[in-house]
Amino acid sequence: MTDSALHATAETERTLRARFWHDLSFWGLLPSWVLMGLALILPIAIIAAVSVATRGAHGGFTWDFNLAGYRQILFNEGWTGELEFTPQYLLIVLRTFVLAGATTLICLLFAVPVAYFICRQPPGRKAALVYLVTLPFWVSMILRVYAWMIILGKDGTLPRFLEYFGAPAGMSFMFNDGATLTAMVYTYMPLMVLPVFASLEKLDGTLIEASHDLYGNRWVTLRRVILPLTAPGIIAGAILVFVPSLGAVLEPTLMGGGKQMMMGSLVQLQFGGGRNWPFGAAVAMTLMALVMIFLMFTGLRTARRGAAL
Fold first, then answer.
1. Degrees (nearest 5) of the Cα angle 141, 37, 292?
2. Residue 71 burial by CB count (10 A; 0-12/13-18/19+): exposed, middle or buried?
3. C-alpha–C-alpha distance, residues 48 and 292, integer Å
4. How many Cα neighbours within 13 Å face the side chain of 6?
5. Crossing angle between the packed helical segments 123-134 and 177-201, to the nearest 10 degrees
């Protein structure tokens, strides 16, 4: 057999072997793909279908194609059937993004120094501090929100403390955007600290020393060395905080008293007491579309920054 024939036979064997392992990996991953389809893709498809259905006379929906759910986000039908622009739901969308953005920014401002402090500790103390950061996850979110209701509510811990400094009795810091923001920051703070900590832990300490040797003060070192090198952790933490904040339900419902509504609580209301499932599904799909746009924008920006480096 010639060398060319031997080479062709070897190539054929490699091709068959690669195809075998490819087929084997496909069948091995098939259960996970089926599970993802049933647990993720199918529910989203059902919500998308409900969003273009028609609201039933007594709640629920019928499978008649109708875009009234999406139209209701911007317009309301008047007495004579004409469409009137109503900004009330746009204000809810705006409030949602403002509170989610403020939550992300405040968490970032607290997470960077906290994560940096933890990274500078000895190994044993570092592990203990990381455990303390994750400790709130061991407690139900409802209990954590109720704890803040006790702290900020009428005759709560904070109002009673301020009474000693001349504040009027019977104060309450509940049922406003500030109370909602406080609970959201407390709830999602660990999701920001942990990714930033993971990035800071990989940071070479000699770079910080080199910055100081080159007469860079703390602010310059933070801005020119620490933040650029920990950008992946900051971006990951921002996504982990911002995206759940957009769909927050407990915080605006309990801390805001249902008066300061966000998109998550609006969806919950429409599927509950409002009994307007197509509108609730339309709001949910709109929220998901906005989240996807944000994630795509963040991913493209990160990819361009990586390509530039």
1. 60
2. middle
3. 15
4. 3
5. 150
Query: What's 222's DSSP letter?
Result: I
> Contact 283/270 with Cβ under 8 angstroms?
yes
pLDDT in tens, the chain (309 residues): 555 544 555 556 666 565 655 555 666 677 887 888 888 888 899 999 999 998 887 777 888 888 888 888 888 876 766 778 888 888 888 999 999 999 999 999 999 889 989 988 888 898 899 899 888 888 888 888 888 888 888 878 888 888 888 778 778 888 888 889 999 999 999 999 999 998 888 887 778 778 877 777 778 887 888 888 888 888 889 989 998 998 888 888 888 877 778 888 888 888 887 788 899 899 999 888 888 888 888 778 777 766 665
Q: For residue 62, what are its two tokens? A: 């019928």
> pTM to 2 decimals?
0.81
Q: What is the DSSP letter of 155?
A: T
Q: Tell me the CATH number at 143.
A: 1.10.3720.10
If you ran DSSP here, which 8-state letter would residue 274 be given? T
DSSP letters spanning 31-87: HHHHHHIIIIIHHHHHHHHHHTSEE-BTBSEES----HHHHHHHEEE-TTS-EEE--
99 & 13 share domain: no
In the numeric block, the tokens 């920054």 are attached to 305
CB 61 within 8 A of CB 54: yes
Check residue 224 and report its DSSP letter: I
Q: Are residues 190 and 212 in the same domain?
A: yes
- Cα three-residue angle 175-106-240, rounded to 5 degrees: 95
User: Same domain, yes or no, for 284 and 205?
Assistant: yes
